[in-house]
Amino acid sequence: MINQKEIMEAIADYLGITASDIDKHANLREDLNLGPIELNDLLSDLGNRFGVGFDGEEVIDLETVEDLIALVEDNSL
Q1: Residue 10's domain spans which residues?
Q2: 27 belongs to a structural domain
């Protein structure tokens, strides 16, 4: 089972920063400056890394890093 630490490290790796630099409450678009293309690329990277897929409806509501972590965890069960 995938844990939050692994997901945070994967997000940090994608962003080129350390996991400790990421606030779980950070807004993906405003705080991390992820536009639609970057967010899609991040989701693709996480999907490939953890072997999970995401439904388009689930992705629309993503706002924070915490939302993204929950999405990956929910889809890995």
Answers
A1: 1-34
A2: yes
